[in-house]
Amino acid sequence: MKKILLSLVLISTVLLSGCSKTDTYFIKIANSAFENNDYKTAIRNYRLALMLDKNNSKAYTQYCACESYLYDKNKKINLEKAIKNCDKALEVDSKNYEAHFYKGRILSQLDKDQEAIEEYTKSININPNFSNAYLNRGAIYEKLKMNNEALWNYSKVIELNDPDMLIYGYSARANFYQNNNNLQNANKDIEKISKIEIKHNNAIDYELRGYAKFLIKDYNGAIFDFTQSVKLDDSIEDNYFYLAFSQILKEDFKNSEKTLDEAMKKFKNSSKLYYLQGLVNFEQKTRACSSNPNSCNLSKDDLADFEIAKELALKDGNNQIYDFCIETEKEAIKILKEYDKYESKNEEPPTHKSKLMELVDKSDSPEDFYNNLMGGYWENILQGEIQKYNMAINQKDYINACISAGVISQAYYELKDEVNYNKWNSIQNGVCE
């Protein structure tokens, strides 16, 4: 009954809109809504267009695309039903490469990876210059650990040199290189991303270029790009994080506080944002104490944000932020003791920087920064896991010994210690049999 009533409403809408309205009129409205990510409005108008012309392959394709993008934020969307719109598009026009692309995207969302690859390949066979299909196919190959195929597809996106897709091709390939410890090539792609001209006001484009500029320590450029990205889409937590982070590294604490205040209204339980808030407060207090020791009021209360960040990090499994909180707290307690010592001698204490800012200062490249950033984390992991492994072996608990050996092997892989990686990889294979 609901479906019948809905159809009557849609028919009435078409009739009341005037006889002069054609499917092209509704397509125009739908396409405009689609470009502005208003997928619900787009769907409504694509449906109206299809009531006037049931052989509009493009409308079926875009309808299918809208449902796929809506699913990214609402998992209640019926993707099996959405695929039918792609199939209808292909029934009308078997050469519709975009219909194959969106069908592949939906199949990927359904974890039907091989079927998705087939659809992307069909799309490419029809249009060999369609960069989007290479990019998405590469992502599935990477997921399946088919690294040669993944790299070839990412490189093909770059080779095609589509201005709208170039930043995505370089970003995907840089991420691929980084995940496979080829940081030298990752660094080259990051440099190229930072120089790409953004021609459309797209939040993701600004986010990708902003992150590249952050990594090469162009903090003014990163601040500009992340500010633009936040203006265009304020739903991405990482954009606020890197905007505030860049402002902190430029020692613009006033604006970083404003950014964090705005961000924490939207993301109230973010360990990353609490960590940065603690960092801003701590940096300002240590500088104030350095410039005027007599009015120094630095205390353990100033570590409260780090404590909250640690609790949240444990809940969301963010080991990296938890580790940074521990390191920064250790440093803060050390500095507190130093200030007490200097105050008792009536001497001026030195200026201090946080552990994280020291890491950035001593990094000469994205490669160095990444190594410095992750090095302490994996070294801490090693200490605990080796103890767990030895304990498990002593207790003949081979299941947990196998798990610990795998973690140790991964840690040495991340630290690029080939000798110990090979050693523990062999141990893992032996103990897990």
How would a textbook summarize the main sheet?
none
CATH topology of the domain at 1-124, anyone? Serine Threonine Protein Phosphatase 5, Tetratricopeptide repeat
**What proportion strand?**
under 5%
The helicity comes to over 70%
Please tally the helical runs, counting DSSP H or I stretches of 4 or more residues.
Answer: 22
CATH class of the domain at 1-124: Mainly Alpha
Name the CATH superfamily assignment of the domain at 1-124: Tetratricopeptide repeat domain
- Secondary-structure content class: mainly alpha
H and E order: HHHHHHHHHHHHHHHHHHHHHH
What is the total tally of β strands? 0
Q: Please, what is the average pLDDT? A: 84
Q: Architecture of the domain at 1-124, CATH level 2? A: Alpha Horseshoe
Structure description:
By secondary structure, the protein is mainly alpha-helical. Among the domains are: 1-124, Alpha Horseshoe (Serine Threonine Protein Phosphatase 5, Tetratricopeptide repeat), CATH 1.25.40; 363-431. The protein is 77% helix and 0% strand. The chain has helices spanning 2-16, 23-35, 39-52, 57-73, 79-92, 97-109, 113-126, 131-143, 147-160, 166-179, 183-194, 203-215, 219-232, 237-249, 253-266, 271-291, 304-316, 319-344, 355-361, 366-394, 398-414, 418-431. The longest helix is centred in the C-terminal third of the chain and has 29 residues, at 366-394. The radius of gyration is 27 Å and the shape is globular. The N and C termini lie far apart (60 Å). The relative contact order is 0.04. The model is unreliable at 1-20 (pLDDT under 50).
